[in-house]
Amino acid sequence: MKKNSLYYFAIITLLYVIGALFNGQAIYNQSAKYGADKSDYVDVLNFEDRLLNIEEWIYTGSGWDDRELASKEKLKSSEMDYAVEKKYSYCFIAGSIAFIVIVLIVYWGGANLCRTLGFAIITIALACLIIGVITPMLEISAYSTNLTIPLKFSVPFIGEVDIPDKVFEGRMYYYFQSKSVIDLINVLLESKNYVVAVSIFGFSVLVPFIKLTLSVLLLLSRPFRDSKFVKKTVGRIGKWSMADVFVVATFLSYLSFSNMNSGIDTEAKTLVGLYFFLAYCILSIASSQIIELAAKKERNGA
Question: What are phi and psi of 158, to 5 degrees?
Fold first, then answer.
């Protein structure tokens, strides 16, 4: 690149990186607040607390009413946190699109268009990857709604005494987890599932960073661009970047079905982290195509 062209691109990239850092930090903070409030909501409706609560058993009127009010406040707070998290995510998307558009406008028709566009996409991909692995991507819960406990017992010389069934109104939670890729790796290591933990770390963290590093070297160094081995390596690495999605999906299915019992519902929800990681995967493929196009134009112009 020419000196002036390099300076302009460096300034544009720096401004984008500053904005991405701000939005990324905000997304992470809001995801942590959402997770904390959602956990508090589940704790209020925890099955042990409800089943051991005498007030709910005899239903004086204060047991469930107070708990319902507290749970609604926590749920509303968590929904607001998630809404703010999505707003910051939309700001990140808008900033990324603006970054690409500015690069296209400034360098359109120039010899360095493919290289600058490639750098821009790699920068965005790196930001998406970091946000994708540190923010929760999966939320799993198991609960019962309006749990009914039959109250029947036998009395000597009298027989069976039938008392109206006890109904615990609303939801009663047995299990809740909200995990990012990093959290999931730590959980798997603690439970000694080393093979799965290493697999997710390799496919979700190590391989993507290696691919992005090689992609940058391909754009910076002509010997790298001319090396068929390096280009094939980058292409083959990219194909493995979705393998962890399969591993996580399998793990999610296991958790969901392992908690399925009669009368117990399971719920799985994808969170912002998964979409950022998916964005990384798409941008990573796009960067490979642009690098290939840049190398082709360089060969034709040589």
Answer: -110, -40
d(CA 161, CA 158): 8
Q: What are phi and psi of 265, to 5 degrees?
A: -100, 145
- Residues in the chain predicted with pLDDT less than 50, given as ranges, are 258-259, 302
Q: Determine the 3-state secondary structure of 109 from DSSP.
A: coil
pLDDT of residue 302: 47
255-280 per-residue burial string, b: 16 or more CB within 10 A, e: under 16: bbeebeeeebebeeeebbbbbbbbbb
Provide the domain limits for residue 195: 3-301
pTM for this predicted structure: 0.82
Can you give the pLDDT at residue 203?
A: 77
What tokens were used for 214?
A: 């090689």
**The pairing of beta strand 265-270 with beta strand 159-179:** unpaired
3-state helix, strand, coil in the chain (%, to 5): 75, 15, 10
Q: Give the whole-angstrom CA distance, residue 48 versus residue 42.
A: 11
Residue 267: per-residue pLDDT? 79
What is the spatial distance between Cα 277 and Cα 134, in angstroms, rounded to a whole number? 10
Please count the structural domains in the chain. 1
Q: What is the pLDDT of residue 253?
A: 56
C-alpha triplet 160, 162, 168: angle, nearest 5°? 140
Q: Which of 176, 173, 170, 174 minimizes the C-alpha distance to 67? A: 170
The candidate with the shortest Cα–Cα distance to 181, out of 92, 39, 89, 281, is 281
pLDDT in tens, 16-31: 999 999 999 999 999 9
Closest-CA residue to 276 (of 95, 89, 80):
89
